[in-house]
């Protein structure tokens, strides 16, 4: 035995003073975010709206605050309540989500809203355990909503908080295996009072001070509690397992144009799978597991196809390069879909990849 505490346990000098110091800092430096109730407003009796908290947390999954702000404003203006969102047309919601990425979140957003509105009278469950029963709500989102909206002292752990926790306790186990001791440590640190503010303070600390590179330790309100800081090894954490090379996939997209008005033929992707329920020009069957067909001979309909170029795109688990083929057509092709005018494209549920395909084709 080397006398060190078990990995993930609090260093001896960490106790309730950690939360007190962090919350004192948060009271003065909390970021002003459109879905957040500021500490002063909380003290004045204003409570967070569970709907807005839930929506923001779904949108923020693997997405930056800067990217989410405008989408959050759009959604809450168009659908200000969970009942309004539940009643929305799927295509409208997918169109409003277009460009934010990770489109399964939008499908789960609708599914969850319909459960809450249809089966729970518009009321979200108030505990993390109950929230996990909702579509698209996992460990992180359930803990965040329970803590922020309902004051449950749940351990909220996102990427920022993982980084803080591994530095506090010098957790040497690489991610993702380190997540169990990280969660245990965060649960120990989470106070019984103001757990929502504590979770948001940890998020803010990771976003503004305890950053991945060159953390501003001299400004950190909890630097005295940080073992990595004491050892001068802040940037060594979190330890991450080596990643394998992402596979490279190929496929082809076929853009049909109507010369009379510049409209393009679109179709809807299957609901299940990557980019589910989003709009696209017809493409071959590429996926994370295999290539799609390429070349003009793979086109869904006969035509005078010419190659307009290539569009590379990175997904989380693979890279994709699409050939972009273009042809003109005056009548409706014998395949499922619809003509979309240039003016309507902004409102179509086109993911970023497909907007880039249309740009390469000279359409958008």
UniProtKB/TrEMBL annotation:
Species of provenance: Aureimonas phyllosphaerae
Domain of life, source organism: Bacteria
Chain residue ranges for the region called Disordered: 277-297
Domain HhH-GPD as annotated: residue spans: 59-208
EC number(s) on file: 3.2.2.31
Signal peptide: none
Bias kind Polar residues: ranges: 278-287
Biological process according to GO: base-excision repair; mismatch repair
InterPro entries hit by this protein: A/G_AdeGlyc_MutY, DNA_glycosylase, Endonuclease3_FeS-loop_motif, Endouclease-III_FeS-bd_BS, HhH-GPD_domain, HhH_base_excis_C, MIG/MutY, MutY_C
Molecular function as annotated in GO: 4 iron, 4 sulfur cluster binding; 8-oxo-7,8-dihydroguanine DNA N-glycosylase activity; adenine/guanine mispair binding; metal ion binding; oxidized purine DNA binding; purine-specific mismatch base pair DNA N-glycosylase activity
Enzyme class, first EC level, given as a word: hydrolase
Catalytic activity: Hydrolyzes free adenine bases from 7,8-dihydro-8-oxoguanine:adenine mismatched double-stranded DNA, leaving an apurinic site
Keyword presence, Iron: yes
Record NCBIfam families: mutY
Keyword line: 4Fe-4S, DNA damage, DNA repair, Glycosidase, Hydrolase, Iron, Iron-sulfur, Metal-binding
Protein name as it appears in the record: Adenine DNA glycosylase
CDD domains, alphabetized: ENDO3c, NUDIX_DNA_Glycosylase_C-MutY
């Amino acid at each position: 035995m080397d006398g060190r505490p078990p990995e993930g346990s609090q260093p001896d000098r960490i106790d309730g003073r950690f939360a007190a110091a962090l919350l004192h800092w948060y009271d003065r430096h909390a970021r002003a975010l459109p879905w957040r109730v500021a500490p002063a407003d909380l003290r004045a009796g204003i409570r967070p709206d569970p709907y807005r908290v839930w929506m923001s947390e779904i949108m923020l999954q693997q997405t930056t605050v800067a990217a989410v702000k405008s989408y959050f404003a759009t959604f809450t203006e168009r659908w200000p309540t969970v009942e309004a969102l539940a009643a929305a047309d799927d295509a409208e919601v997918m169109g409003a989500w277009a460009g934010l990425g990770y489109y399964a979140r939008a499908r789960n957003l609708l599914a969850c809203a319909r459960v809450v509105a249809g089966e729970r009278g518009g009321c979200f469950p108030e505990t993390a355990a109950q929230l996990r029963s909702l579509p698209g709500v996992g460990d992180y989102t359930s803990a965040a909503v329970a803590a922020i909206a309902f004051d449950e002292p749940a351990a909220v752990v996102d990427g920022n908080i993982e980084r803080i926790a591994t530095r506090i306790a010098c957790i040497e186990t690489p991610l993702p295996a380190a997540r169990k001791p990280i969660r245990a440590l965060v649960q120990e640190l989470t106070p019984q009072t103001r757990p929502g503010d504590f979770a948001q303070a940890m998020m803010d600390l990771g976003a503004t001070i305890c950053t991945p590179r060159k953390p501003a330790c001299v400004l950190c309100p909890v630097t005295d509690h940080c073992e990595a800081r004491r050892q001068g090894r802040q940037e060594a954490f979190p330890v991450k397992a080596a990643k394998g090379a992402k596979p490279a996939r190929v496929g082809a997209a076929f853009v049909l144009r109507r010369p009379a008005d510049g409209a393009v033929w679109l179709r809807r992707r299957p609901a299940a799978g990557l980019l589910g329920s989003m709009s696209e020009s017809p493409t071959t069957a590429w996926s994370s597991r295999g290539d799609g067909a390429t070349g003009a001979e793979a086109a869904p309909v006969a035509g005078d196809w010419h190659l307009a170029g290539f569009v590379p795109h990175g997904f989380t688990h693979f890279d994709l390069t699409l050939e972009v083929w273009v042809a003109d057509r005056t009548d409706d092709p014998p395949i499922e879909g619809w003509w979309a005018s240039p003016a309507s494209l902004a409102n179509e549920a086109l993911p970023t990849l497909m907007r880039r395909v249309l740009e390469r084709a000279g359409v958008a």
